Amino acid sequence: MTESELYVEYKGVFLPKHLHPPDSLKYYEDFTFRPDDVLIVTYPKSGTTWLQEIVPLILSGGDLTPVQTIPNWDRVPWLEEHRAKILNLEQRPSPRAFATHYHYNMMNESFLKVKPKVVYVMRNPKDVFTSSFHYYGMASYLVNPGTADEFLEKFLSGKIMFGSWFDHVKGWLGAKEQDHIFHIAYEELLQDLAGSVSKIAEFLEKPLSPEVIRKISDNCVFKNMKQNKMSNYSLVPEEFMDQKKSEFLRKGIAGDWKNLLTEVQTAKFDAFYQEKMKDVKYKFVWD
Ligand code: A3P
Prior knowledge:
Layout: H1 3-6, E1 7-10, E2 13-16, H2 22-29, E3 38-42, H3 48-59, H4 65-69, H5 72-75, E4 97-100, H6 109-114, E5 117-122, H7 125-138, H8 148-157, H9 165-173, E6 181-185, H10 186-191, H11 193-203, H12 210-219, H13 222-227, H14 263-276
Parallel strand pairs: 3-4, 3-5, 5-6
Antiparallel strand pairs: 1-2
């Protein structure tokens, strides 16, 4: 199916209609944040599910109950997705944890006023591209990626769900107020998960003992999360996600783009990246 059949255009980006009906988008526009809310913000395929595991464990002080009993999409709901409006989020005790794929310029008035805590996760865009390529091939609510060449065109021009990776990252890095935003890279989590958990906990003002940090990071390593049916999307019916084609928790590594992109495609990606990101001062771990 095509973009016009599967997507709706909202605030300049494509969103899959199946997940984001108009009343859900309206619900988010009117949503009231609290100052102690924790919002995980990502461009898709940058480590959202990982943070939906880590953040609740930090907030629970290492109690595994939330990640063993609640699917990630209800544990840390996306505010723009259809489930948000039926979960009684207004009744949830503080601190609440949410996720969003919105660009900074899509955020609502309450967000800009209240400034909840944001954990912004970034990932090497060539790995985001690669992870997306496999994901678009298995999710029925997304347009089939076609060839890597075809998908590369769409990825670079932002003609995919949630628009351009480049605009997303630049928008959040350029947010007016930075004090309530913590930036971390997927690659940092891979390199030092315990250290990353500790930094996130510090940002969330939730000091944890080294034993609890260890317990959380042990639970959140790829092979353990892959076994957790509350986090590995095995509860989603095959008609929506066909994990026989590609698993949601697929490889969980850095550098898999080397197995997909040719030299010519890599050169094209790199040239586009250099041009788009030339004014960005932030030092990315993958550069
Ligand atoms: P791959 O497709 O490269 O394996 P998101 O949750 O934002 O959709 O991102 C999904 C990507 O994060 C997938 O990447 C998935 O495997 C990876 N991921 C999820 N949990 C992870 C973990 N514990 N360790 C490493 N990677 C993880």
